[in-house]
Amino acid sequence: MNLELRGKVAVVTGASRGIGKAIAHSLLNEGCAVAVCGRNAERLDGAVGDLSKVGPRVLGVPTDVTDEVAVGKFIGAAMRRSAASTSW
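User: That's the sequence. What structure does it adopt?
Assistant: Structure tokens below.
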């Protein structure tokens, strides 16, 4: 499938397992850089390792999306990484 997303940046919450991880996987296959988050840092690290095998442009930030400050930090990290595109 070609959704014409190559070069775009996607943000996926709940990406340490299940549907979120599968969505991140699909977006990487489409050529996106993907910023992922999840509450459990250890599980998220494992998911980032798995996803990095699909595409190298993955950023993982442990985040509880019920915490507005934490979400702001996650989005800020994704924006900084996107702005410095060579670090993807």
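Residues 38 and 78 are 14 Å apart (CA to CA).
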